[in-house]
């Protein structure tokens, strides 16, 4: 008897973790759920759900205020989560980690504080053409307020790679370079360390949007040598409403506060206030304590699996999905041919992306359609909307096969062919 074909190692990882995610076991519209909307948000493992319940059942109190036992427990848990984020990113110190609501708020914080303190009329902010609105609109608002100008690094065709030939020229005289690590629309993985090195050589501050990479691959802010880095907990198996901003300590110390309120001050009189030290200076009001606890559990969970292993698994499923999608005549796939983040956006001839996603959902398959908050990029590509399937380490090749079968059925229904 011949030996059974070896399963790809990655499939073993997916199969071994699926039971950790209660949401994945559901049937949707009578069909087993295929959840391919992970770039929007990931599902949550039981360890995260239980950590949040445990916090509310046993340790719920406000932080940094009480002398009572629950207050001390909540403070220890919240500050323990900050330590965890610092090690997750390999920050030099815990003071370089500010809790926010997520990537969007982290980027807005940089624009509102560092930006307001340092940018003047005529200064230049460099972005790329593939930025999510969260890494575009805050800079547009800042530019409008200060009189600064925006400059864009171009993206090449449907393959979606950054054209870096004009990088040094674009950085000349600029103050800030903000760019995404992994594009949520194209899947492009940008060369973060190289971009940050060019920025540093030009005296330009670098801001990395790690929304799509933090939960997918090892991230080391010291090795990348970035000045700021933003990510969201909910895209890393954690809860919604919590995320973090990494910021180099010297920059934080020179930055004005973000919002005014409790916790961000050291002394207040009727006339004025002295501000607390970073990171508290940037965390006014009662923070998302349970969110931080859930994020801590999520980062433990991810590192328990290994982020390099997660990346390999996601690569495997994504490459397979691209191969299968190429079977459709006339399909237009966006993003790099080689290594890419865990997603693929596409359009099919004569099939409206919204119809596709709605009918796929009727058969249990969750994908996203639209411009994915990258409308200028979609304008450049000449498409109002794309369909996007996005993967995580719990997705399997078998799910991709089901997705492809469902797509065929949907296309037949839309086109009225048997
Ligand atoms: N992209 C997507 O479906 P928030 O919403 O703050 O957690 O993350 C914003 C954000 C910033 N940058 C990138 C590259 C992103 O992908 C996102 C979120 C989701 O693609 C929701 S639009």
Q: Your description of this structure?
A:
- The structure is a single chain.
- The protein is built from 14 helices and 19 strands.
- It has 418 residues and is α/β, with parallel strands linked by helices.
- The chain folds into 2 domains: 9-44 and 306-415, Aspartate Aminotransferase, domain 1 (Alpha-Beta Complex); 49-304, 3-Layer(aba) Sandwich (Aspartate Aminotransferase, domain 2).
- The longest helix is centred in the first third of the chain and has 21 residues, at 69-89.
- Mean pLDDT is 96; it is low at 1-5.
- Bound molecules: ligand C6P.
Question: Which tags fit this structure?
Answer:
418 residues; alpha/beta; Aspartate Aminotransferase, domain 1; Aspartate Aminotransferase, domain 2; 2 domains; 14 helices; 17% strand; binds ligand C6P
The share of residues in helices is 25-40%
CATH superfamily of the largest domain: Type I PLP-dependent aspartate aminotransferase-like (Major domain)
Task: Identify the overall geometry.
Answer: globular
Structural category is alpha/beta
Q: What fraction of residues sit in β-strands?
A: 15-25%
The spatial strand order of the largest sheet comes to: 4-12-11-10-9-5-6
Give the SSE layout.
Blueprint lengths: L8 H9 L9 E2 L2 E2 L1 E2 L10 H14 L9 H21 L7 E4 L2 H16 L5 E5 L8 H10 L2 E5 L1 E2 L4 E2 L4 H5 L4 E5 L11 H10 L3 E5 L11 H4 L3 E5 L10 E5 L1 H6 L10 E4 L4 E3 L13 H17 L1 H19 L6 E3 L8 E5 L5 H10 L2 E2 L1 E3 L4 H7 L4 E5 L6 H19 L3
Parallel strand pairs: 3-17, 5-6, 5-9, 9-10, 10-11
Antiparallel strand pairs: 1-2, 4-12, 7-8, 11-12, 13-14, 15-16, 16-19, 18-19
Helix pairs in contact: 1-11, 2-10, 3-10, 4-5, 11-14, 12-14
The structure holds ligand C6P.
């Amino acid at each position: 008897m011949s030996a059974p074909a070896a399963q790809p190692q990655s499939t073993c990882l997916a199969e071994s973790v699926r039971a950790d995610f209660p949401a994945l076991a559901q049937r949707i519209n009578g069909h087993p759920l295929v959840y391919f909307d992970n770039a929007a948000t990931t599902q949550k493992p039981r360890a995260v759900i239980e950590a949040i319940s445990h916090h509310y059942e046993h340790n719920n109190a406000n932080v940094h205020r009480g002398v009572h036992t629950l207050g001390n427990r909540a403070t220890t848990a919240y500050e323990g989560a900050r330590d965890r984020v610092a090690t997750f990113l390999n920050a030099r110190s815990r003071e370089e980690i500010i809790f926010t609501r997520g990537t969007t708020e982290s980027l807005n914080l940089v624009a509102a504080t560092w930006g307001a303190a340092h940018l003047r009329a005529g200064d230049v902010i460099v972005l790329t053409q593939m930025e999510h609105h969260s890494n575009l609109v805050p800079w547009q608002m800042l530019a409008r307020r200060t009189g600064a100008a925006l400059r864009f690094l171009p993206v090449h065709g449907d393959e979606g790679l950054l054209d870096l030939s004009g990088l040094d020229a674009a950085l000349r005289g600029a103050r800030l370079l903000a760019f995404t690590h992994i594009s949520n629309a194209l899947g492009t993985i940008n060369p973060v360390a190289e971009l940050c090195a060019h920025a540093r050589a030009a005296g330009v501050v670098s801001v990395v949007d790690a929304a799509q990479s933090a939960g997918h691959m090892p991230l080391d802010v010291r090795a990348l040598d970035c000045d700021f880095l933003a990510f969201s907990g909910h895209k890393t198996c954690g809860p919604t409403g919590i995320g973090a901003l990494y910021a180099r300590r010297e920059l934080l110390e020179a930055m004005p506060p973000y919002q005014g309120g409790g916790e961000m001050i050291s002394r207040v009189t009727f006339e004025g206030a002295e501000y607390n030290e970073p990171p508290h200076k940037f965390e006014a009001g009662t923070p998302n304590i349970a969110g931080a606890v859930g994020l801590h559990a999520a980062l433990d969970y991810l590192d328990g699996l290994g982020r390099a292993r997660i990346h390999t698994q996601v690569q495997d499923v994504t490459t397979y999905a691209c191969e299968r999608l190429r079977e459709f005549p006339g399909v237009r796939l966006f993003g790099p041919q080689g290594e890419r983040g865990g997603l693929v956006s596409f359009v099919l001839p004569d099939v409206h992306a919204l119809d596709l996603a709605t009918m796929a959902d009727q058969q249990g398959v969750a994908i996203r359609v639209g411009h994915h908050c990258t409308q200028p990029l979609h304008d450049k590509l000449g498409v109002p909307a794309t369909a996007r399937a996005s993967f995580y380490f719990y997705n399997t090749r078998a799910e991709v096969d089901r997705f492809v079968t469902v797509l065929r059925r949907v296309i037949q229904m839309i086109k009225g062919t048997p």
